[in-house]
């Protein structure tokens, strides 16, 4: 398989690691899938990178591949039927508004059905981060549309694989209510894989162990640190802003958050549901981590527990920097 090139902090890097996750694709190819595969994981953990590498892998395995990412306004169609390919491509080319991306995303379902009707036998549909754009309340309906392709195709097919990825734990919840998909998490990169990425960044860098401790293997955090010339404080402040971690928010949950920064599992056992909902909604934590058996995860699972990285048995901070952001606001609330 050809390794794709990606850009990280304006540097060209080569796709690394994620061996298990790529093997997972091969498994789906050889055994087929009964359901759409919904993958969720921390923001910036590398879902898009993996999906784009997977698109390459699937193409090499002879699949027609449609990839759409309305958030990053990216779209790729490798379709054996030129007319359909042109149709999708021209739809996507006209796209300027978010609304139009919604239309492209929905039209993928019809076009794949049409391709199957015309006899295409091996198709992969990759929907990356679309749920926010089509609306969280439509996420489950969209997944049902994908399931409809698998279950009631217009013609028999050899292999159809549908994958949808999301950073929104909220949409995962919504989809989880129904039996329309297999839902699996992906975690940040393993230490070995992350080291390969770290090594590709030029220039002076803090010691790898330090970068690992700060990012927990999240490549987006690595990117932000690199771009800010390793100014940790700037990265934390930016996150506080983006997540709107106001003093009011923190004061409201003061005692609970204090516990949660030292042990995220506190949230599992003791926190009010309203707080958990807010932390999930702000994408600060991953809640209800499954057993650390490879089966339940797309790639290598996180450790059973790692207090230093903020990983508990059931709940984890998305990265140590997410936890640091809360800690920082807690401290400044106390002073003010
Ligand atoms: N396995 C990988 N190899 C090389 N670069 C990666 C890898 N995973 C992620 N990256 C880079 O890290 C950044 C964040 O990853 P991305 O895939 O956008 O995360 P997500 O889609 O989960 O939010 C991107 O710049 C991406 O190119
Ligand atoms: Mg993404």
Task: Provide an overview of this structure.
The chain has 336 residues and is of the alpha/beta class. The protein has 2 domains: 5-185, 3-Layer(aba) Sandwich (Rossmann fold); 231-335, no CATH class. The chain is 51% helix and 14% strand. The protein contains 16 helices and 10 strands. The protein has helices at 19-31, 47-60, 82-93, 98-117, 131-134, 136-151, 169-176, 191-200, 208-215, 219-227, 232-242, 247-252, 254-262, 265-270, 273-281, 320-335, and strands at 5-8, 11-14, 37-40, 64-69, 74-78, 122-128, 159-166, 182-185, 285-287, 315-317. The strands form 3 sheets. The chain has a 6-stranded mixed β-sheet, with helices on both faces. Helix 6 crosses helix 7. The longest helix is centred in the N-terminal third of the chain and has 20 residues, at 98-117. The termini are far apart. The model has no long low-confidence stretch (mean pLDDT 95). The structure holds adenosine-5'-diphosphate (ADP) and magnesium ion. Magnesium ion binds next to helix 2.
């Amino acid at each position: 398989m050809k390794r794709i090139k990606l850009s990280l902090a304006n540097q060209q890097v080569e796709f690394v690691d994620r061996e298990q996750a790529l093997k997972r694709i091969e498994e789906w190819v050889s055994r087929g899938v009964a359901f759409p595969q919904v993958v969720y994981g921390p923001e910036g953990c590398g879902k898009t990178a993996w999906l784009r590498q997977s698109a390459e892998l699937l193409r090499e395995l002879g699949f027609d591949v449609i990839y759409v990412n309305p958030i990053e306004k990216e779209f790729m169609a490798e379709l054996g039927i030129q007319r359909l390919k042109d149709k999708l491509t021209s739809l996507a080319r006209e796209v300027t508004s978010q609304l139009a991306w919604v239309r492209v995303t929905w039209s993928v379902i019809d076009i794949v059905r049409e391709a199957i009707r015309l006899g295409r036998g091996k198709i992969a549909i990759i929907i990356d981060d679309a749920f926010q754009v089509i609306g969280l309340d439509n996420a489950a309906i969209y997944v049902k549309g994908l399931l409809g392709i698998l279950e009631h195709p217009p013609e028999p097919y050899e292999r159809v694989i549908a994958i949808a990825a999301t950073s929104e734990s909220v949409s995962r919840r919504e989809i989880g209510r129904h039996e329309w998909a297999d839902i699996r998490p992906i975690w940040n990169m393993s230490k070995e894989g992350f080291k390969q990425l770290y090594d590709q960044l030029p220039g002076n860098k803090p010691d790898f162990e330090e970068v690992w401790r700060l990012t927990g293997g999240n490549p987006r955090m690595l990117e932000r640190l690199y771009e800010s010339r390793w100014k940790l404080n700037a990265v934390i402040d930016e996150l506080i802003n983006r997540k709107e971690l106001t003093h009011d928010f923190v004061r409201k949950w003061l005692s609970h958050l204090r516990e949660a920064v030292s042990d995220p599992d506190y949230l599992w056992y003791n926190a009010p549901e309203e707080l958990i909902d807010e932390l999930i909604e702000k994408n600060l934590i991953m809640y209800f981590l499954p057993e650390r058996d490879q089966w339940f995860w797309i790639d290598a699972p996180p450790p059973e527990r790692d207090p230093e990285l903020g990983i508990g048995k059931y709940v984890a901070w998305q990265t140590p920097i997410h936890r640091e952001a809360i800690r920082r606001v807690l401290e400044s609330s106390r002073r003010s």
